[in-house]
Amino acid sequence: MTTTTPSRGRRRAPSRLGRAAGKAAALQKPRVLLAGLLLLALTSVMLLDGYLRAEVGGDERVRDGASSSKVPDKILDGGPIVSFRGGSATSVSVPDKTIALTFDDGPNPTYTPQVLEILEKYDVPATFFVVGSMVSRYPGIVKDMVEQGNEVGIHTFTHVDLSYQSDARVNREMQQTQLALAGAAGITTTLFRAPYSSETDAIDNYSWPVYEKLGEDGYTSVFVDTDSDDWKKPGVSKIVKWATPDDNDGASVLFHDAGGERSQTIKALPQYIQKMKAKGYTFTTISGVIEKEQSANGQQAGGPGAVNGQQPGGGTGAGNLQAAHREAGGATLYEGKALLAAVAVAEYAVPTLSVGLMVVGVAVMGRFGMMLILARRHYRQRNKRRFSWGPTVTRPVSVIVPAYNEKECIANTLKSLARSTHPIEIIVVDDGSTDGTSEISLNAAHELGMTNVRVIRQENAGKPAALNNGVRNASYDIVIMMDGDTVFEPDAVHQLVQPFADPEVGAVAGNAKVGNRDTIIGAWQHIEYVMGFNLDRRMYDLLRCMPTIPGAIGAFRREAVLEVGGMSEDTLAEDTDITIAMHRAGWRVVYQEHAKAWTEAPGSLKQLWSQRYRWSYGTMQALWKHRKSLTDRGPSGRFGRVGMPLVVIFQIVTPVFAPLIDVFTAYSMIFIDFRAALLAWLAVLAVQLVCAAYAFRLDKEKYRYLLMMPLQQLAYRQMMYLVLIHSCITALTGGRLRWQKLKRTGEVGTPAGAS
Q: Between 350 and which of 16, 49, 78, 468 could a Cys-Cys bridge form, CB atoms 3.0 to 4.6 Å apart?
């Protein structure tokens, strides 16, 4: 029997869908681009933070014991300040009774401010050799340091031994530190002290070329005469003793204001200053030492690295204790500010993401535990010998098959229904197909001797309209909705309708299974269906907040469908929409694991993306549509305060942030501890395998498909995350999508995959 449903004067759907398709196509690429940019931004922030902490690009090698045969003797035996005026290496010693107090490895938010306070109290200037990554993290301290009258020098950006680094890395270490100083204090500097350096006699054949190169660039390299060795934490008295020069010699004295616990340094510094002042010593900066030396020799004053009184790169020396500084301007200043802004974002974002990672991890583990406990309870409850929904339901029911261009599948669908052990009428609603779906349906029904098949033709209006048309034309009080590419097992209908013996039940979700599971993509989806969908439904069933009746196999009381207004066209997830509406109307929605149907899953990544994009976006639409349930009373409020949060947490929030686990794991493997990160990832995978194995056991599935699970975690899951993120961006930008038709092959012919 064939019936044609008129358009009833409504606007022609094709034009509306066409406009929607055009709008979706116009907005699709920008949203994908935005999702990609967000992922790139996250990766960049993590890499920047790792670089600042020497996790990315870190190099802990320290050279020791190398020959110094190529280093000039006058440098090895000379003073602690080495410059290259006129291309020739010269050294400067600190005058007698003079201390050039220097600090390395800062700034540190705990100890550097205390050092500055002590220096200000005793009116003592110092030279701080700062690490660029620390400057970018604590720019305010460096600004205070400079404003107080102290001098700063470069101690590289990541505190690496430059003798092991390429010229490009050396330049980068210097330039990035200069940018950090420009952003923090508006200055750059010509002073440099190499990490792990000490006295000049420790210069070797590998480090000397670095000093020569930097000297050509206008830098003055600073070493030490006297080392307090405060990093050893030997005690306050020894620090003071070791920092004191012999006799009345002048010295470049080394302390540390960072790089470890420095409480002994803080206690020793006031004692040291008082002791040296009592002995008649004066304190100055490195520039102050050079100025004294130039004045003593009758030379023109100029800051460190100056050539004829001019600073490298322009600018004139200040002729004071900060002569090594020069004002930053132009691009350098703005690039420095940009660097500090990026670092500030990383400093805030990464800890926040870390907290988010912990929350997501707890939520994921909690969900697994919750699923296992409730799924086991559900299985034991529903498989008891004495369990019954009530009197056996034997009355006929209506099966509605919405079909749009289903020529490859519709005959197999009808063939499976012909084997049904339960009395049914079949209503095929042809939603404007152009491939002869109606004729194929009628021919198949005729060949199978099926007199219970009706074909209703309508203009293309979408799946919800087709289902509503089928409900209106249904003859019985129970309607079963299935997809045109789905194959039912013989007892599927009978099993599916048994819960309706309970008058409180308004809808039943069946057990949808992937028929084309012998491909990689199909196997991945098979694991997802068994573990993710069906295990979830067991949990939601017991909690009485089932969010979705699958479109492939679901049953409804006809009166309940009409009561809630039928299948809505407001969302792309009409199955989720009506399920939530059922809950809010007071109907109970349950899961019937024994009602099995085989569906054809997307066979390509493109089709899979399209399907899941529509599912996730439609779910968000449905949740937003029913948001008032959060404040409702009665059954609606119960779903709003139990089901809605669970769906939002487990199906949107957790999956959106779940990529953090993978991003942090990959980051840890590459830059921190590969073995520990790998073990952590394998532990999570083991938990998931346990859950999946239990789900397969409950559904009596073959375990061999679980061999694909590790690869699924590496590839398939990432794609699902991107789909969900893409859907969130679409929702936030207010976009709308049209209902999409997947390409079918008809390879799911019979439920032969049943175990």
A: 49
